[in-house]
Backbone:
């Protein structure tokens, strides 16, 4: 026998067991940990949907605007919030179908006392149909974008 083999054989049996068991338990623990991780982060990334919006990033907006959007499927629900990430999302007016999958809705950016230069974010949700969209009542607040609905990328605009 070689010197290396003899030194391995001289190790106590419990050390050999530990050298085998620890990596196996570590791999099993990692598998369990990975399985129990929330899937909401992945769902949010997957839920971004191609929704064409008439308002472009950086556009100046008035207090009340008529916004047009086009969806491949579903019914739009428009959310607006102050550009501050801690602000709630406000559900805007119900969208009306113009033709095909093109919709128009009335959107509010602040109130009469809002100063010029205030930044807002817009996101368009895609509800399954009109009745699902009507569950989002105009004027209600949401703390976050629902992760189970497809939505547009956030668009930042500036109040005139």
Residues:
């Amino acid at each position: 026998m070689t010197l290396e083999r003899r030194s391995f054989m001289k190790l106590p049996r419990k050390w050999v067991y530990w050298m085998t068991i620890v990596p196996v338990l570590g791999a099993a623990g990692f598998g369990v940990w990975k399985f129990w991780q929330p899937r909401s982060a992945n769902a949010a990334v997957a839920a971004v949907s191609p929704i064409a919006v008439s308002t472009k990033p950086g556009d100046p907006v008035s207090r009340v605007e008529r916004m047009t959007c086009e969806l491949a499927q579903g019914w739009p629900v428009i959310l607006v919030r102050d550009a501050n990430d801690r602000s709630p999302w406000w559900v805007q007016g119900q969208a009306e179908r113009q033709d095909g999958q093109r919709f128009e809705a009335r959107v509010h950016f602040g109130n009469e006392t809002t100063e010029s230069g205030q930044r807002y974010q817009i996101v368009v949700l895609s509800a399954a149909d009109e009745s699902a969209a009507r569950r989002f009542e105009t004027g209600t607040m949401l703390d976050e974008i629902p992760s189970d609905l497809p939505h547009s990328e956030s668009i930042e605009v500036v109040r005139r």
About this structure: The first strand starts at residue 52 and ends at 53. Strands lie at 52-53, 60-61, 64-70, 75-82, 89-91, 96-99, 102-108, 119-127, 141-142, 155-159.
